[in-house]
């Protein structure tokens, strides 16, 4: 217990010191996309359900205020490694609130092939899209490599965005390295490519993890009804940590430093509580 408390104190200090983590400039990965536990068969000793609560706070430079997000996520694992999930998010950007309802499924067809599908709907759609749909194909390769290819379509109030991405990840020992290329095209503008490099280190019997990521490229950022969606050069640094205190109760912490062209810097922390049953 003392080691776990010390772990989170050090993680918090590290995040505050370098201001880096999980807020990403590219579309967020699905829960199945970077979950090593998905390959573990479900049984009586492994809980089938998991609930998570996350709260994030991000501060913008140039007196552009603070962004806050709270989310409640639940998932169900099946004996055939299938995962289904639902997520409800509420975000606040300088007093303007958005709600999002998300649902998804990860479906393996064999030891090497799997598909992921996800859909989102927002009744408020001030900063987020009105709705989005995503599909991804996963293929297990030789020597610990896994390939992913996916597409996400998002309908905003005035424009449409289509994102295609390819991800190659490599597992060796207790390590994971990954590279992702995202290319986003707006219906009224050009394309915006983004590169992301990631490393994770797994430890302990409960699949605890430490990781960091670096992203660089161009991004379309929705700045609200007044300014609309702008494209600018971006880069971000991120750090994440997940630690299971017991078999069923875990904590997570993420931090990020993100530059949105010449508009602003964004830095923030995300804290999460996880419970499996």
Q: Can you walk through the features of this model?
A:
The chain has about 280 residues and is mainly β. The chain has a single domain (about 1-270), classed as monomeric porin ompg (Porin). Helix content is about 5%, strand content about 60%. It has one helix and 14 strands. A 14-stranded antiparallel beta barrel has the order 1-2-3-4-5-6-7-8-9-10-11-12-13-14. The longest helix is centred in the N-terminal third of the chain and has 17 residues, at about 1-20. The relative contact order is 0.19. The model is unreliable at about 5-25 and about 40-45 (pLDDT under 50).
Poorly predicted spans? 3-26, 39-44
CATH architectural arrangement:
Beta Barrel
Strand line-up in the sheet with most strands: 1-2-3-4-5-6-7-8-9-10-11-12-13-14
CATH superfamily: monomeric porin ompg
Largest sheet: 14 strands, antiparallel, barrel
Q: Helicity range of the residues? A: under 10%
Rounded radius of gyration (Å): 18 Å
- Looking at the structure, the CATH topology is Porin
Shape: globular
Topology:
Layout: H1 2-18, E1 49-60, E2 66-77, E3 83-93, E4 96-108, E5 113-121, E6 131-140, E7 145-155, E8 160-172, E9 175-186, E10 191-203, E11 208-222, E12 229-244, E13 249-260, E14 264-276
Antiparallel strand pairs: 1-2, 1-14, 2-3, 3-4, 4-5, 5-6, 6-7, 7-8, 8-9, 9-10, 10-11, 11-12, 12-13, 13-14
